Amino acid sequence: MPTPPWRPKEATLVRRQGLFHLYYTRGIPTAPFDSTWTELGHAVSGDLYNWVEWAPEIPPRATEWDNHQIWAPHIVETDTLYYMFYTGITHSPPDWIHHQRIGVATSPDLVNWTRLPEPVLECLDVPWTYCIPSMEGAGDFRDPYVMPDPDSAGHWIMYYTARHRDAPGELLIGAARSTGDLTQWTGAGPLFNTAQRYTLSSVTETPDVFEHQGRWFLLYTTWNKHPIGIQTALHPLADSSGWSAQQFLHEQVPFNNTDPSFGPEHLVVDGHELYYHANSAVDGIEFLEFVWEDSLNFDLIDPWIVDTALSVPQPPLAGVRLVPVLGAGGVRLVVDTPRSLEARLWIADVSGRRIQLLHEGRLPRGRSELPWDGRASAGFVMPSGVYFAVLETAGERRVARFARLR
């Protein structure tokens, strides 16, 4: 999981009403980089072994700040809503060159998401970062990880990846704090213990932090031979002197091949401590379980089989027909549906790149016709070639192929 041609990267796992929901960065490795990694995959399982892929979520918005790519989701649950933090990429040359910022979407049910109109944190908000939005690589600010602040009930800590203005050639982990409003953040400084002189890597990214028996574990990805690093401290925002020397995950579990992995994450469910990461050797997400030998040392084993009879629902497109009708003025997409449904209809090219959004919202029962005039969302006319009409609900997708001749 996922099925080809998709390759997963950073992921976040949450459980609701007995079902696991996995959101993950996904892309097509054979496609040009700028044409893919443009939406988050969404898969659902009752037992962590059998997965159903639902429709992807959080696509780029052509006229908004997150207009290019979407990466690195992380979900936290409050009493009323789920908050998904994600990295949105702004690419609008010459002012914004692959500029990374952190946004938020909220949902009551892990399916219907509402995005905030503006990012909640970016390098321009953090004075210690290296931040030139118009320069390639000078606006790196990504990989949000959010957790409750152990010092103050109802408060939160966010970790992220950024560049320091005094060492712009390397990436390290930074932190921010919130007093309760998950859309408002104040910088809490860099974690210098994740700088290159401590991690031996010019790239330290994808932070994950959790507590075990009074000790805080910081996991992250490096570009070392053994990529997953671990440090521990007595407080999650300790200064560099309070963190242990780096240990590699490979040293804890030498018989597990963790070298192809990146993006470490964890989740506690029913007393079980899950560990998961993207595994480039199999182009999938790998799930394991912590087994602790003492407060510092652990093994990773296959996860327990969840005792559940729940089946994963398949949001219905049963009986729905999607037919492209070619004409002199362009293409009409005819949708026949036996029931009213919430859906998106968009046009993609052969690389999977989203060209134009034709509809987002409720389609009435019966027949609807939606025209496409052959233009991309930016207004220019697309060339002749093969295109795809894609109809999506919250958990299913219908695709129709057609050829366009100018």
How would you describe what is shown here?
Belongs to the glycosyl hydrolase 32 family. Residues 12-215 form the Glycosyl hydrolase family 32 N-terminal domain. It holds the Pfam family Glyco_hydro_32N. The chain has 406 residues and is an all-beta fold. The protein has two domains: 7-301, Glycosyl hydrolase domain, family 43 (Tachylectin-2, Chain A), CATH 2.115.10.20; 321-404, Sandwich (Immunoglobulin-like). It has two helices and 28 strands. It has helices at residues 196-199, 249-252, and strands spanning 7-16, 19-27, 39-45, 51-57, 69-77, 82-92, 96-107, 114-115, 121-122, 141-148, 156-164, 167-178, 186-191, 204-212, 215-222, 228-233, 247-248, 261-269, 272-279, 284-292, 298-301, 321-327, 330-337, 341-348, 354-363, 366-372, 385-392, 397-404. The strands form seven sheets. Strands 5, 6, 7, 8 and 9 form a five-stranded antiparallel β-sheet that branches. A four-stranded antiparallel β-sheet has the order 1-2-3-4, with no helix packed on it. Strands 10-11-12-13 form a four-stranded antiparallel β-sheet, with no helix packed on it. The model has no long low-confidence stretch (mean pLDDT 91).
